Every structure is written in C-alpha cells, then in structure tokens.
Amino acid sequence: MTGRDSAKTITIGGDLTVNRLGFGAMRITGRGIWGDPPDRAGAVALLRRVVERGVDFIDTADSYGPNVSEELIAEALHPYPKGLVIATKGGLTRPGPDSWRANCRPAHLREACDGSLKRLRVERIDLYQLHTIDAAVPLAESIAALVELQRAGKIRHIGISNVNAAQLAEAQKLATIVSVQNRYNLDDRAHDKVLDACTRDGLAFLPWYPLAAGSLAQPKGAFRDVAQRHHATPTQLALAWLLRRSPVTLPIPGTSSIAHFEENLAAQDILLSDEEMAALGR
After folding, report:
1. pLDDT tens digits for range 166-192
2. Is residue 272 part of a domain?
3. In a designed cystine with 272, which of 114, 148, 276, 281 is the match (CB 3.0 to 4.6 A)?
4. Enclosing H/E stretch for 93
5. pTM of the full predicted structure?
C-alpha cells in the first residue's frame, strides 16, 4: 500500500485521510469475542504487521473482549505512529461469550468512553461510534452524550452503527455524523439505502461482516467467473466489490491470522469493471 492514491483513500470528517482497506480488531480476542486470545503474542505481532503493511485505520470497541481488543492495540502499537486512526465504539455490554446487550444511556456512554481513553492510552479518540440503537433510550439522548464528550475534547468525530436510513437522518439533525458502520457485504445488501445516503452526504461507510463469514466460500455463476478472471480468492473478490461499490466504503475485515490478513490486503489491487459489477448485481 503505497502513496495516497485518491481511489484508495478516504477522508473522514474532513481531516482524517486513511487508506480504504482498514482492519477490524474484533477477532484478536478469545473465542466468542470473550477474554484473551489463545496466542497473545501472535495477536500483538498481527497488529504490528497490520501497521507495517500500511493499514492506517483500525476499528475496535470496548465490548470486544470486553476491553481486551483495546488493551492489545495499545500494547502492540503505543506510542502510535503518526497518521494511524483508531476508531472505537460504546453502547454494547457483554453478559458472556457471544452475548451482547445494548446500553446507550448517557451515563454508560460517558463511562465507556473514559474507559476506552484509558485502555487506548490516548487523550482523544479520533472516531467514537455509537455501537447500536438502544430501544430503551431515545436516540437523541445517546447522541447528546456523544456531543457532550466531543465538546469536552474526549472525541474528535462521531459515528453511528447498526442504523437504518431514518435513524441516520435523525442522528444527522442532532450532531455532525461522519461515519456509519452497518452489516453489509456482497451477499447481504439490506442496507443499500444507508450506503446510498452515506455516498450522497460524503460519510464513511464501514461495512462489518464484509466477508459474510465464509458464506461466499463456494462461489457460483458470475461470482466464480469474475474471481477466476482476476485470479482472486472469494474473500478478495468480496472486498474488491465493496471497494468498488462506493467511494465512501471503508471495509474493515478482521482476522487473527497474519496470512489471512495478507490475503485480504491484496484485494485492494483488484479493479472491477462496470461490466463485472453489473454481473455481480451492482
């Protein structure tokens, strides 16, 4: 990943320019996204390799572990190299492995942000995202808490996650929203309207579950043909499709393997034509 080719970069919030293939740090934790990874030294080595290879956007959350992902990032990379953007999230709590519970009450968000600041060893978080919509808390209250944290200098930019188009529009009336993180991939396009809104408004769109956790492992039809044409693996083609889908997409594939990371990174060099995009359904 060399240079700052505009096709391969995105500017978030007007002042954070990063390469458009990031790294999601959820899977560097233990099984069930719970506890320490089985190979802590390997997780540290992976994070260092990610940065060595030019990835300058890492996405995490206080709920990954919980706390473990943020702690590992600081252990591996602090003091952080210039230009590295670490985005984190608050609003989900963890009763146990593979279990998630929303808590977007203002008091919890303030506590969660302070915890992330401490674990990441920073004075300000570049991008802090509301991790979910809490049915028990009005969105206006949750966003107001993030605006308060922003005014206090604890976060630079505000993002939201797991929202529909109406919720995005509501949040944009309450604060300057710079990014959206939703589930989205070649096999699951339920949030096309949200992505289209982000494209229109210049918001970064961070698709989580970008590889559909292996559901694309047995390519058929046009998907198989396009992958073969580019000598690409299914995961590489899925990432290349996301990069081509809109100039605001910033995929954040995660892995615990350096080899898998390297495979994902190579997807940035696959350039899909308009005809190939049409064959893939977009």
Report:
1. 999 999 999 999 999 999 998 899 999
2. no
3. 276
4. strand 92-93
5. 0.95
